[in-house]
Design a protein that fits this description.
CATH superfamily: dinb family like domain
CATH architecture: Up-down Bundle
Helix content: 40-55%
Radius of gyration: 16 Å
Largest sheet: 3 strands, mixed
Strand order of the largest sheet: 1-2-3
Number of domains: 1
Number of helices: 6
Structural class: mainly alpha
Strand content: 5-15%
Distance between the termini: 29 Å
Shape: globular
Number of strands: 3
Length: 168
């Protein structure tokens, strides 16, 4: 039961891979959709940077400082590198042993850096929701570009009632 968030996060990450195998490289890097002019690749990169920050920190017994993410731009430009990174993160998640551990998380929530105590389980749950949120942004971009894909529930939180969902 305690590893259920890891399985949920891996399930969510599988949707990244599903998407990346369905769209072409030009669609992955297309940043012509306003108002933010971001690409599918930039959203994937952002979610993977978030997860890598968490994993790198716990693997090195450090605080999790979300303001110090790596921001690997190669991932935003190369969907195959993104697929490799997704696979790496899924494997690293399997190595987590003490999901109930308290971790100190540093972030800037709009007024400067603050530190918050989390359980590792709760920061991973936040990462899962964060990834799904970015899937919704990705869905908007792909819709604007008239790019079709088929991934059940992509961009929707699991708690969204199915009758409220469109296009799945």
């Amino acid at each position: 039961m305690k590893k259920s968030i890891i399985k949920s996060l891996q399930y969510t990450l599988n949707k990244s891979t599903d998407l990346l195998t369905q769209i072409d490289s030009d669609s992955y890097i297309n940043n012509t959709v306003g108002p933010f002019y971001s690409s599918v690749g930039s959203h994937i990169r952002h979610t993977l940077d978030f997860l890598n920050c968490i994993l790198n920190s716990i693997e090195n017994n450090n605080d999790i400082d979300l303001t110090l993410r790596n921001r690997d731009e190669a991932i935003s430009k190369n969907k195959y590198k993104a697929i490799e990174e997704v696979d790496s993160i899924k494997n690293r998640l399997d190595n987590i042993k003490n999901i109930e551990d308290i971790v100190y998380v540093i972030d800037d929530c709009g007024t400067g850096k603050i530190g918050i105590n989390y359980t590792l389980e709760s920061i991973l749950a936040q990462a899962n929701s964060h990834t799904i949120h970015h899937f919704a942004s990705i869905s908007f971009i792909l819709y604007q570009l008239n790019i079709d894909y088929e991934i059940k529930g992509f961009g929707y939180n699991a708690t969204t009632p199915i009758p409220k969902r469109k296009g799945i």
